[in-house]
Amino acid sequence: EYLKKCVRRIAALAPDILLVEKTVSRLAQEFLLEAGITLVINVKPSVLERVARLTQADIVTSIDGLVSREALGFCHTFQIHTYSLPEGETKRLMYFDGCASHLGCTVTLRGGTIPELTKVKQILLFMAYVTYHLRLELSFLMDEFALPPAAPDESAIIIEESDPHQNNPYAIAS
Asked: Which residues in the chain come in under a pLDDT of 50?
């Protein structure tokens, strides 16, 4: 009876997907299935935090935390793809599409050898780092009302040959 009440409290929020860090009792899984809620179990805490950030959801640590109306996350589509790995293994990946793009993204790297993919991953991480800091610097400069330097007027600087008797073969004349 307690599990039914807990599932009713969750179902009252009308979620489509429920991500859980550890496991859920089999009876509660059946109740959630009857309520039409997709359950994903054994999700790492770091993944929960990323999904919460991208979907703008609140992480609830216990059923007792559902006293107030928590912010449910939003994405346009949710899909699970299964990929076959070279060693005969399979890997399932969840895709949350349609989240706010300014909050982050996910890049899936496939193909090539593991060392090649590792190098590509390092390059992508460095590019993300550079892009982030570029945005920070741009924001700082905008806050300081800094303007980019004016492009030099190429007609004002003319490089011409000078007197061959001087040490400097080129001189700048304006």
From this structure: 169-174
